[in-house]
């Protein structure tokens, strides 16, 4: 059973930079997993931020960026704003029509 | 503008059945693969099922395999999820999503399914 792990919580100061990560229980995350990232605020549907590792979805500001850092997928927020306070989820495509979400990271901006 | 509107949620007893629908508009539905993703109250997102464009290939999470069936009607621009043998742990908001490059591209607002006696 594949497990995708994210930091449960993270805190960043307004204007600061934060990097959230997405790891596999066994093995390294690479571009072949097509990592993607989603932002969700309470009571709302998720919003797609990043797909295919580092491609921003339409309308997403360029202070959100995706990458592979070491053996993990990463989402970096540069110049954090108050309304970035949300839950962030990554997803990895495992092949053969199987997708696995990470447990999500609750980001606090304070 | 891409729109996905889920319907069919509600309260159902354990062991019961429910069918969710997702009406798509603003894009050529027939050429896109589609997914269902769910979120239990206070929990994270979980991928449930995928169907390719054309409806010839379907896949499911282990937790719903054999109980849920995904299908599509391209003439009606509608995605479906037939849910049988429902359990309390299936209680969740179910989102319809469009696939793009192995990603969940656009999302509906979700339909709440509550399984309880």
General description of the model:
Chain A is mainly β. Chain A is built from no helices and eleven strands. In chain A, the strands form two sheets. In chain A, strands 2, 4, 5, 6, 9, 10 and 11 form a seven-stranded mixed beta sheet that branches. Chain A has a four-stranded antiparallel beta sheet with strand order 1-3-8-7, with no helix packed on it. The termini of chain A are far apart. The model of chain A has no long low-confidence stretch (mean pLDDT 96). The mean pLDDT of chain B is 97. Chain B is mostly beta strands. In chain B, strands 2, 4, 5, 6, 9, 10 and 11 form a seven-stranded mixed beta sheet that branches. Chain B contains no helices and eleven strands.
> What proportion of the residues of chain A is helical, as a percent range?
under 10%
* Largest sheet geometry of chain A: 7 strands, mixed
Q: Which oligomerization state do the chains in this entry correspond to? A: heterodimer
- How far the N terminus sits from the C terminus of chain A, by CA atoms, comes to 36 Å
How large, in whole angstroms, is the Cα Rg of chain A? Answer: 13 Å
């Amino acid at each position: 059973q594949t497990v995708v792990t994210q930091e449960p919580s993270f805190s960043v100061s307004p204007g600061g930079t934060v990097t959230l990560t997405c790891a596999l229980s066994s093995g390294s995350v690479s571009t072949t997993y097509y990592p993607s990232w989603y932002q969700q605020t309470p009571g709302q549907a998720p919003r797609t931020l990043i797909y295919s590792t580092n491609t921003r979805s339409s309308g997403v500001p360029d202070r959100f960026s995706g990458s592979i850092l070491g053996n993990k997928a990463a989402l970096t927020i540069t110049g954090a704003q108050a309304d970035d306070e949300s839950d962030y989820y990554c997803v990895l495509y495992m092949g053969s029509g199987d997708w696995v979400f990470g447990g999500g990271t609750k980001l606090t901006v304070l | 503008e891409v729109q996905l509107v889920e319907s069919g949620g509600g309260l159902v007893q354990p062991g019961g059945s429910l069918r969710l629908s997702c009406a798509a508009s603003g894009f050529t539905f027939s050429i896109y693969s589609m997914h269902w993703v769910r979120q239990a109250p206070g929990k994270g997102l979980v991928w449930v099922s995928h169907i390719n464009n054309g409806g010839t290939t379907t896949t499911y999470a282990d937790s719903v395999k054999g109980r849920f069936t995904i299908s599509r009607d391209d003439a009606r621009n509608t995605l479906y999820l037939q849910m049988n043998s429902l359990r309390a742990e299936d209680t969740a908001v179910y989102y319809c999503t469009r696939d793009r490059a192995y990603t969940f591209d656009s999302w509906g607002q979700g339909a709440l399914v509550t399984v309880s006696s």
